[in-house]
Design a protein that fits this description.
single chain, alpha/beta, 8-stranded parallel beta barrel, 11 helices, 12 strands, 39% helix, globular
Length: 303
Amino acid sequence: MSKIIITAAITGGIHTPTMSPYLPYKPDDIADQAIEAAEAGAAVVHIHAREPETGKPTPDLDIFARIVERIRASSDVLICITTGGGAGQTVEERTAVLPRFKPELASFNMGSINFGLHPLLDRYDKFEHDWEPEWLEFSRSWVFTNTFKDLEGICRLFKASGTKPELEIYDVGHLYNLKYLLDKGLLKAPVYLQFVTGILGGIAATPYDLMTLHQTAERLLGNNYKWSVIGAGKDQFKICTMGALLGGSCRVGLEDNLYLSKGRLAKSNAEQVAKMKGIVETLGFETALPHDAREILGIGKAW
């Protein structure tokens, strides 16, 4: 890309309040951290909603509205709303954000995977809220379901909302699912891919796996795509740096990794964004502003 887009995934649906006192879960805190991340250099912020009392992920549209409205009132950052939601949410709950908000950008998961969060149980002796260990244990038998029927229906929702999809690729097969949707005319090129690495159940966060995704996308899509990469967990900054070197963009944030460096919790999303921006610019690249990201991704021209 001519400029590298840094996305900040603010809170997500993986980590729980016990794991970091800096993980935002109240609507105002999520919005404020998104605004701060934009000020630190993020061109895009990725938004999930949580119950303000307990921090449990929620599809509640009124909570989403509080977050989105507060961000929009203070920043021109590009808002990417999740349609992945949280474990156990139905497709209908997850995608209700599209007709409600008609966002410029929203995530769109390209297939089903086992999505294992249960190894996190071994790291903590006790939890602040009862839902946290139950949530993590639930993932041991959870399949994050995105059937072809689901994918086809969600494509139509994106088109009706005029929203650019950010296509979440958790494994190589998801690229072939995407190719199927393009061939059926349900998605329109050029597309925007988010390579999600490091989730238990999906592809690992290694240089070899990122190259596999990158090369497969090249074969299937030619020049008809832009891409970014996520490295969930400890390899976040390594994989994001490799993504920049390969010509992609990158996503950081407390959804994907709670740490700034080994043993040191990030105190905010903005800290991670500032670190990634420093890496990118040290390598000689330029980071995108929100208006650059809109132009690069063809926001408003997805359909």
